[in-house]
Amino acid sequence: MVYMNIPYALDDSVPVPAFRFQSIWKVQANDTYQAVQPRGFPSAGIFVTYEGRGTFTHPDRRDELGAGTYMIVPAGLPCSYRCEGGDWKFFFIQFDSLDIALQLELTVGRPAATAQMPEAVRLCKRLIDSLIVHPAGYGMAAQLYAQELFLLFGEERASAGRNRHPELDDVLFRMHRNIGRPLPVDELVRQSGLSRTVFFARFRSRTGMSPSRYMLELKLASAKATLETTDSSVKEIAAALHFYDEFHFSKLFKQRYGVSPRAYRQSLPPHLGGVIE
């Protein structure tokens, strides 16, 4: 292989939400259970109900917290909550701040149903276990388990969104893992199980470009990384990435990055780049 896979990095423009796990309660309640928070919780919280039923009341409404639901509650909201029907099993996690929920576009202040409750319960149990036995790095683990819970719900919500199109996930994985070989679009259409028209429409909605343009962007990014990290010649890179020839490759590279491949390599610091051709 004379080309490099593309680097994957978190762009500086992507916001990383502030988050700090504070506490978790596992509650198994009967009809005698009722709690009142006249001034609201001191920090945000999330109810994760896995069995039975409870109700949550605040000045504007009364919500039922049934099995298979979660509810994110902002800090400072006067409220009360109680068991209904003699059985309510839930976890309650306090955290700071709501940034993570807002960035994931999770519903705040109303119950939301989830099909991920078994995994959510597993994460809550692992969180509690880490706080009981204090393994190495348990503080970090607690933060990660709590964040993973929110990410679980966020990914579920996003997969139901109009532009997410999760049926394209495997197609994108295949494209990224096969940068160095021809990958006919018709193969990708067949893999998706969609009609050609629907596939192209959903792919553009998901990525902002056509499949052929997306694959070209991957190849050019791979070529750029190869120029930075290997001594492969422009001709070798063009051949490895299945461009028509080195001149066609050079033209596309210059259109994308503003300089030819040779000029780009010459502009690199001494510790980067291979031989100058």
TrEMBL record:
Keywords from the UniProt entry: Cytoplasm, DNA-binding, Transcription, Transcription regulation
Molecular function per GO: DNA-binding transcription factor activity; sequence-specific DNA binding
All copies of domain HTH araC/xylS-type, residue ranges: 169-267
InterPro entries referenced in this protein's UniProt entry, alphabetically: AraC-bd (IPR003313), AraC_XylS_family_regulators (IPR050204), Homeodomain-like_sf (IPR009057), HTH-like (IPR037923), HTH_AraC (IPR018060), RmlC-like_jellyroll (IPR014710)
Pfam short name (any one): AraC_binding
Keyword rRNA-binding: no
Signal peptide: none
UniProt xrefs under PROSITE patterns: HTH_ARAC_FAMILY_2 (PS01124)
SUPFAM superfamilies: Homeodomain-like, Regulatory protein AraC
Keyword match Acyltransferase: no
PANTHER family membership: HTH-TYPE TRANSCRIPTIONAL ACTIVATOR RHAS, HTH-TYPE TRANSCRIPTIONAL ACTIVATOR RHAS-RELATED
Protein name as catalogued: Helix-turn-helix transcriptional regulator
